[in-house]
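EI: anyone free to look at a 277-residue chain?
SC: sure, send it
EI:
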Amino acid sequence: MFGYVCASYDELTQEQKERFTAVYCGICRRIRAQASQAARLALSYDIAFLALLHMSLYEPEEESGPSACILHPIKKRPWVDNAYIRYAADMNVALAYYNCLDDWEDDRNPGALAAAKILESSLDRITREYPRQCAAIAACIEELRALENLRISNPDEPANCFGRLMSELMVYEEDLWAPELRALGHNLGRFIYLADAAMDYRADQRKKKYNPYLAMGTGEDWPRWEQYLVLAMGKCTESYERLPLVQDKGLLDNILYSGVWTELTRRRRKDAQEEET
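SC: here you go
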């Protein structure tokens, strides 16, 4: 369900590319340190946005440096580290764990169960450190499963549920900016869920799996779905623009105003090509 909140890489300056890579590698490095080497495979670009947003809002002191890793053993890559990088790493692991459990419940996929077992060893610590966020993830995943079992035909219900999950992840601490961050996260979560439902429509139709658009019974309707997505992202960016962001603002703008749409277009083209072959 993740992977839509990406940068439009070709539109970034070289400095922005290096910054994005350093944040992404910093989170990956922290997942290895805080969870395990194998847990790094679950890293999502959406989590890099989470870290960048908090770093721009709070502007913490950063550590940085270059290092090699198992994925890039020869050429050292730059990384940054701070409290929000570490937070993003833990949220990535928690999300991946519950997502793997959900995949196991849905499809009895043994690979998903094995991945959940790998991630489980870190979950107790993450839950102790971030009880509010982890409780929200667990509750919303359970609610989503219940809605799917009921085959709810109104896409707003599951989209709002996923929005509540993202709204809690977006808030690192209860402060002045928490209400705006929750509103941003809620609408970003709606966008992610609705985009994923649209992209999975044909696959879910073939597999006879739940999809809110299938449950609506109106057939494949991209113009209508795009209206839902534009509305969700429009509300997300309204909250985003009310935050006092300066650091990395250009990079964050790229992600929300261009990257999310570029990634959606890329996936649609890829699916269309696969349908033709």
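EI: The chain has a mean pLDDT of 92.
SC: 👍
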